[in-house]
Design a protein that fits this description.
Layout: E1 18-26, H1 33-44, H2 54-80, H3 87-102, E2 109-116, H4 121-130, E3 135-140, H5 150-161, E4 169-172, H6 180-197, E5 201-207, H7 211-215, H8 220-234, E6 242-247, H9 260-269, E7 274-278, H10 287-303, E8 308-311, H11 319-332
Parallel strand pairs: 1-2, 1-3, 3-4, 5-6, 5-7, 7-8
Helix pairs in contact: 1-2, 3-11, 6-8, 6-11
């Protein structure tokens, strides 16, 4: 019996000995009930995402949650879905393709995969090994580290590699929340919106996580605070001109505060009626930015007396994102044989 697999035979011609794997969260295959149910089962069933006793949580998830939640979620996905598919998938694919072109001269091969849904991490790694990759840089597309996101990527990558007899040399990016090039790209994207729409109060809305995860040592909150501070410094904003909040809470447990919608209402009460919102935890736009912030949060802010609400697009597959990520990957792969960087 063969316990471990051998890498696929590389194609004829020069092998791409260095690989880059970009990993994002994932997306349903379609904005309808059953694809969303399958996606939520994989996502919310991951112990990295929901740290609860499986004997309690999984029956609850399989029962009432996945019976009713997919219908509501499907309506939200349909509001942002494009003819070409999910924005998260399209932007992640575009980013991988752009990075591949930028690194073409180095001989590196770039692939992307998702922690949940398709294309998955296992297939992406198989393609890289099949191309002859012996050294691999893994870049989770999460600027700030959390066990519920980056930790899940590590689990997926190591699970995929555990099937192989011969493993590639591995460099795993934990986070890039304070990387100088990333902050510069983020600042440039915000400044472009300020130039076009006017300079207003800047709200940095980060995806939330349960408070208990931070209490157990997760550095996500501290890194979100540092990203905000560095972005404010790059834009020359005073402490009164920039703030941060957390969005996308789920379930009855306490999540990181202030909550974005509550904070927006507080800004109105303080007389701040014009805001620009940036989402530094999201490498590409997705349901949480395009629907939750751009639609739900905007409507609540304006209904409460706000006058102007502008969302800064995520860096997505823009030249800004490709350029800073190219420089970052070049640093990560420096010194590796087969990398002409």
């Amino acid at each position: 019996m063969a316990w471990f697999r051998s890498p696929p035979s590389p194609p004829a011609g020069p092998a791409a000995t260095v690989g880059v794997l970009l990993v994002n969260l994932g997306t349903p295959d379609a904005p309808s009930y059953w694809p969303i149910r399958r996606y939520l089962w994989a996502f919310l069933g991951d112990r990295r995402v929901v740290e609860a006793c499986p004997w309690y949580w999984l029956p609850l998830l399989a029962g009432p949650i996945l019976t009713f939640r997919p219908r509501k979620t499907a309506r939200l996905y349909r509001s942002i879905w494009t003819e070409a598919g999910s924005p998260l998938l399209l932007y992640t694919r575009g980013l991988a393709e752009g990075l591949g072109r930028a690194l073409e001269a180095t001989g590196a091969r770039v692939e992307f995969g998702m922690s949940y849904g398709e294309p998955n991490i296992t297939a992406a790694i198989e393609r890289l090994l099949g191309a002859g990759v012996e050294r691999l840089v893994v870049v989770p597309l999460y600027p700030q580290y959390s066990g519920s996101t980056t930790g899940a990527v590590f689990d997926g990558v190591t699970a995929a590699l555990s099937a192989y007899r011969v493993l590639p040399e591995l460099r795993f990016v934990r986070d890039y929340h304070d990387d100088e090039a990333y902050i510069a790209a983020l600042a440039e994207s915000v400044q472009a919106v300020f130039t076009a729409k006017g300079r207003t109060h800047l709200l940095c809305s980060f995806h939330g996580i349960p408070e208990k995860y931070v209490a157990k040592g997760d550095p996500y909150q501290a890194q979100a605070v540092r990203t905000t501070a560095l972005l404010g410094r790059a834009l020359d904003l005073s402490a009164d001109d920039i703030s941060l909040s957390f969005q996308s809470r789920f379930g009855p447990t306490e999540w990181l505060k202030p909550y974005t919608d509550d904070h927006l209402l507080d800004l109105v009460k303080r007389g701040i009626r014009r805001v620009t919102v940036v989402t530094p935890a999201f490498a590409v736009d997705c349901l949480e930015t395009l629907e939750e912030i751009a639609e739900e949060s905007r409507d609540k802010f304006l209904a409460a007396g706000g006058e102007s609400f502008v969302l800064v697009p995520a860096l997505n597959d823009s030249p800004l994102q490709v350029r800073w990520l190219e420089a970052y990957v070049r640093r990560q792969a420096t010194g590796w044989p087969g990398f002409a960087g």
